[in-house]
Design goal:
The chain is of the alpha+beta class and 199 residues long. Helix content is 28%, strand content 31%. Strands 1-2-3-4-5-7-6 form a 7-stranded mixed β-sheet, sandwiched between helices. β3 (72-81) and β4 form a beta hairpin. The longest helix has 16 residues, at 15-30. The radius of gyration is 19 Å and the shape is globular. The chain starts with a strand and ends in a 27-residue tail after the last strand.
Length: 199
């Protein structure tokens, strides 16, 4: 019998939900998942992280998608709006994961696709994300969903004595017709002239 898979978008968390989120975070890190922790987080660390995310959700600066498999949290991911006023129309996707026991169910694709749609409806124009250079399966998934690499910092992610590339990717979600794309053209706010070469 196929499991029932659905998405849940929490705005607050009770004790049961906090425990389920911690269970997934801990299991993913224990299995070597590249989600930003060197060691499996303790419950208080996971609770603090979740509280911060849900505070941002309540301000409309983030969204947290939880994948439920037969009613239990087995995967998650989020988008969070840029904190500076000049970046409020961009957001970063992060903490995309599935519990090791739920791998192969397509939760990663489900979560990222839902986050893209949710961010677009929230007025986000550009989504960004970072992936560890050796996380080839995740990078392929993001590429299939339309993300493109815009750069990488070589060997800056530290895991003990190992160093990995930080691969940066983006996806444009569309803009209002009144938006003027200035790019790198000279002029406009914050512009400075080129330096003349001294001879």
């Amino acid at each position: 019998m196929k499991p029932k898979i659905e998405l849940f978008w929490p705005v607050s968390a009770d004790e049961a939900l906090r425990a389920e989120v911690h269970r997934v975070l801990r299991a993913v890190v224990e299995a070597g998942g590249a989600i930003g922790y060197l060691e499996p987080p303790e419950r208080d660390e996971a609770d603090t992280w979740l509280a911060g995310v849900l505070d941002a959700v309540q301000r409309d600066d983030a969204a947290l998608a939880l994948a439920l498999v037969d009613g239990q949290v087995e995967g998650m991911g989020l988008w969070m709006r840029g904190s500076a006023p000049i970046f409020t129309h961009s957001a970063e996707i992060g903490k995309i994961m599935a519990h090791p026991s739920a791998r192969g169910l397509g939760l990663g694709r489900l979560i990222v696709s839902a986050l893209i749609d949710h961010a677009r409806q929230a007025g986000i124009e550009t989504l960004t994300l970072g992936a560890r250079g050796n996380n080839l399966g995740a990078i392929e998934l993001y590429e299939r969903l339309g993300f493109r690499e815009w750069g990488r910092l070589p060997n800056v992610i530290e895991v003990g004595d190992l160093r990995f590339d930080d691969v940066r990717m983006y996806l444009e979600l569309g803009r209002d017709a009144k938006i003027v794309l200035h790019g790198a053209q000279a002029g406009g706010p914050g512009s400075s002239p080129r330096q003349r070469s001294r001879t």
